[in-house]
Amino acid sequence: LMKIMKSFSHIFLLLSTLVIFRGAKANLQQSYNVSSIIPAVFVFGDSIVDTGNNNYLVTIVKGNIPQNGKNFMGGKATGRFSDGKIPSDILVEQLGIKELLPPYLDPKLQAKDLITGVTFASSGSGYDPKTNVLLSVLSIPKQLELFKEYIGKLKAIVGEAKALEIVSNSLFIVLSGHNDIQLNPASILNPSYNELLVKFASNFVQELYKLGARKIGVFGVLPIGCMPLHRNTRGGLRKNCVDSLNEKAYSFNNKLSIEINSLSNKFPDAKMVYIDFYNFTFDLINNPTKYGYKITKNGCCALLGKIELNGKVKNRGNSTVKAVYSGADWDLAKASRSSGIWSIRDDVQIPSSPYFPTYAAQGQGPPPMVQERFQSVISQLFQYRIIRCGGAVDDDMANVIVAQLLYLDAVDPTKDIVMYVNSPGGSVTAGMAVFDTMRHIRPDVSTVCVGLAASMGAFLLSAGTKGKRYSLPNSRIMIHQPLGGAQGGQTDIDIQANEMLHHKANLNGYLAYQTGQSLDRINQDTDRDFFMSAKEAKEYGLIDGVIMNPMKALQPLAAAAEQS
């Protein structure tokens, strides 16, 4: 989180310009009183902006542990997941409203606290009410219910007319989505989950509008894959960012931005803005010295710098937590206060170029807009039970396909699944994971070759339900024996050679069954690369038809395939 704070200097200036002053240039160092324009601040979200609501919940997700609050007033933990103030505190402080933003659930709240704003945020929560539901935290829908309760209390204090005036002139901040993306199983199993999250966020913003909110800032999510937690557990020896999580975060942000802009046009009497701090944060994480920090891969308070635990912690082997920490992170997911990232600074420039991973041997990845549209199309196809095996078959691809197959089986075991194959092949074990799952689930799996199905790609193509295996007319299909190498001592080489022979016998046996060819014929043909056209593959028995009429390809596939 510490990485976030510096970006908020510019984010806040943008927010004050767009939300408070409606487009006018603003300088918070000027002499006018911003608090006279913004009477209160209301914050909704997760641990980034939770000042202690979870202290009053029956949950294990609490921030009131010894190392938190190290640089806070009094040096005591308050429920904030940081060593000092967090963004919601610094926001109201910069606005001149009050020094700290209290949690709504604090039973000691006074009337003056309610009048000037509170935070409803809850650590561990998300837009999706099912995210971390077993932890008993406050999801965004639950936070909305508490805000409705708050309005009733405010009316009792200042009267209905004044209460509505306070709400309409106040600033509303929404910052959530991190836990949905990284912790909710649906984020992995459902390719359309980002669209669902955006719907949750949109409904929430519209509910705030119905309750009188007119100045709403909605933050995108951080580059989640760059959090120390994921870099330490999934980033390898070099503790790299986890691209798959960052891609999900970036995709969600794009969709959320479009939706908030749409809502802004829908409700012209309100000011609704999407606020991005992904790009700056990513640059800070990967170039910490550029912003005056030494490290961003570990938090200060992690057991051996790797796994963060609530309760007793050590500073990478030391028995106590250092009072001054020069890194950007406080723990493995939050930020320290020491660098003042959330303070107003005009000397820091936010990079404008968005992040997208570069893939080895492929140069720069596709532009973000292209990737975004591509992912959107894939999500739309998944809704129609269409999945893809595109690219090399490796563990990552296999895990996705297996999860998709299991999900579609659970949703409706009576409807076919269509898998398009365009693959040069890949790992035998990864491919067999997909193969076994295809046979394990209840729906028929129809396979369609587009472009190239070679090696394991051809094997999976032929593994579709018999009578429902197809190819487009200009595709190429190739089978051969497993490839590999061996090294080490003679015994090691023998072991690896025997493993290759096992895979060869196993694959060829299945190919013989799936094609109707004899095992001797399969052994002979796979001795070298054996390429076939779509028509030749049909004659060989790898597929059952060649799709000649794309307009009929999905209803049903058999109607579009040449059966002669």
TrEMBL record:
Active site: S455, H480
CC annotations in GO: endopeptidase Clp complex; plastid stroma
A Gene Ontology biological process term: lipid metabolic process
Keyword DNA-binding part of the UniProt annotation: no
Catalyzed chemical reaction(s): Hydrolysis of proteins to small peptides in the presence of ATP and magnesium. alpha-casein is the usual test substrate. In the absence of ATP, only oligopeptides shorter than five residues are hydrolyzed (such as succinyl-Leu-Tyr-|-NHMec, and Leu-Tyr-Leu-|-Tyr-Trp, in which cleavage of the -Tyr-|-Leu- and -Tyr-|-Trp bonds also occurs)
Transmembrane domains' residue ranges: none
GO MF: ATP-dependent peptidase activity; ATPase binding; lipase activity; serine-type endopeptidase activity
EC number(s) per entry: 3.4.21.92
Signal peptide: 1-26
Keywords attached to this entry: Hydrolase, Protease, Serine protease, Signal
InterPro entries: ClpP (IPR001907), ClpP/crotonase-like_dom_sf (IPR029045), ClpP/TepA (IPR023562), ClpP_His_AS (IPR033135), ClpP_Ser_AS (IPR018215), GDSL (IPR001087), GDSL_lipolytic_enzyme (IPR050592), Lipase_GDSL_AS (IPR008265)
One matching Pfam family: CLP_protease
Gene3D superfamilies: 2-enoyl-CoA Hydratase, Chain A, domain 1, SGNH hydrolase
The keyword Hydrolase is annotated on this UniProt entry: yes
EC supergroup of this enzyme: hydrolase
Homology family: Belongs to the 'GDSL' lipolytic enzyme family.
Annotated protein name in UniProt: Endopeptidase Clp
